[in-house]
């Protein structure tokens, strides 16, 4: 058995922020470990103010992480998972907002995104997985999922099926980015960017007047970026089959699970979504990846202020498809050229 793990590190980001070649003003930057990844904070602020602003941002990231992490026994998510089958559980405002949006997208995507996959993701055990579970185990875990079995009313959560569990990994990271951006804006930072493992949100105008430009990691050519020009949408997120993987018996397994089969989704190789908030982009990138190009583009075209770029395999070839707003606005280039 050969195992290959590709996980978050400072140099391994799914989306790369491209600075202009000769900026007249550069952002002040700091990196912070939260939400299971490296968070990049880049703000246009005076260096004398930066330390206090970064502390504000780091505290908010840690606070959201402490609520949403399924890896912390003390988190709000795990309290819900322990208690919500027995009685309605009162939840924080943050949790209510994430669950409300998650359930809305679960219905919109026909379950391609589902926040109740806790039993299934726990069975697979990413990021430490080395061996795939058996079909009978997967079927048993699937029986304990389903967003229709989650009730949310008046900031109280209840599971209608014992053994269910939340996994907010495809929403909480984006929400943490959004909250951090909101706090920095409220603190007077006029422009900046927060990036957490491929989830990006930016705001304001850069002082040198240049555009915000982004390159999406090519899913199979590590030295290449797909540069996207055009969308004036302030958040984006990428999901890819190369993020958290292991190899077993000659087959690659990744962490993006199809809620209908319980196995890694295979209809896409990577999916990037632009949306008005990082949480929406985070959720939709997961859904688009699971749905595959045809259904996903149809979904994005019917969802206001969203765009998508999808890579997928067809007849043994890597293909690329975009929503209408990105057609003619993508190009592949080597990272060194940007």
Give the strand line-up of the largest sheet.
2-3-7-8-11-14-15-16
Total of DSSP H or I helical runs spanning 4+ residues: 8
Beta percentage is 25-35%
CATH class of the domain at 76-159: Mainly Alpha
Measured distance between first and last alpha carbons: 38 Å
**CATH superfamily assignment of the domain at 76-159?**
ApbE-like superfamily
Counting helices, strands and paired strands, the structural category is alpha+beta
What can be said about the biggest beta sheet? Answer: 8 strands, antiparallel
CATH architecture term of the domain at 76-159: Orthogonal Bundle
* Proportion of helical residues: 25-40%
Task: Write the topology of this structure.
Blueprint: E1 15-18, E2 28-34, E3 37-43, H1 47-68, H2 76-83, E4 89-90, H3 93-108, H4 118-124, H5 135-142, E5 150-153, E6 156-159, H6 172-186, E7 192-196, E8 199-203, E9 213-217, E10 224-228, E11 235-240, E12 245-248, E13 251-254, E14 270-275, H7 278-291, H8 293-301, E15 307-314, E16 317-322, E17 330-334
Antiparallel strand pairs: 1-9, 2-3, 3-7, 4-6, 5-6, 7-8, 8-11, 9-10, 10-17, 11-14, 12-13, 14-15, 15-16
């Amino acid at each position: 058995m050969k195992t290959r793990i590709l996980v978050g590190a400072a140099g391994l980001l799914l989306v790369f922020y491209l600075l202009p070649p000769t900026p007249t003003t550069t952002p002040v930057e700091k990196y912070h470990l939260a939400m299971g990844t490296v968070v990049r904070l880049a703000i246009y602020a005076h260096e004398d103010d930066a330390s206090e602003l970064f502390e504000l941002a780091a505290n908010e990231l840690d606070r959201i992480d402490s609520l949403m992490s399924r890896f912390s026994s003390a988190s709000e998510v795990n309290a819900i998972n322990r208690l919500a089958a027995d009685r309605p559980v009162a939840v924080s405002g943050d949790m209510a907002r994430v669950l409300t949006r998650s359930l809305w997208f679960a219905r919109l995507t026909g379950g391609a995104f589902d926040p109740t996959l806790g039993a299934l993701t726990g069975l697979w055990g990413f990021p430490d997985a080395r061996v795939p579970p058996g079909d009978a185990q997967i079927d048993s875990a699937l029986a304990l999922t389903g967003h229709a079995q989650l009730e949310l009313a008046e900031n109280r959560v209840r599971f209608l099926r014992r053994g269910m569990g939340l996994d907010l990994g495809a929403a909480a990271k984006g929400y943490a980015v959004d909250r951090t951006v909101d706090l920095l804006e409220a603190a007077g930072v006029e422009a900046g960017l927060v990036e957490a493992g491929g989830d990006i949100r930016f705001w304001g105008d850069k002082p040198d007047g240049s555009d915000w430009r982004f390159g999406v990691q090519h899913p199979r050519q590590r030295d290449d970026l797909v540069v996207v020009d055009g969308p004036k949408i302030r958040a984006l997120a990428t999901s890819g089959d190369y993020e958290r993987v292991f190899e077993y018996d000659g087959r690659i397994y990744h962490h993006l699970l199809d809620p209908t089969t319980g196995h890694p989704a295979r209809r896409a190789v990577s999916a990037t979504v632009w949306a008005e908030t990082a949480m929406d982009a985070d959720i939709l990138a997961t859904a688009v990846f699971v749905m595959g190009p045809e259904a996903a583009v149809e979904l994005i075209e019917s969802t206001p202020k969203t765009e998508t770029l999808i890579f997928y395999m067809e007849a043994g070839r890597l293909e690329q498809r975009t929503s209408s707003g990105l057609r003619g606005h993508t190009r592949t280039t080597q990272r060194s050229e940007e």
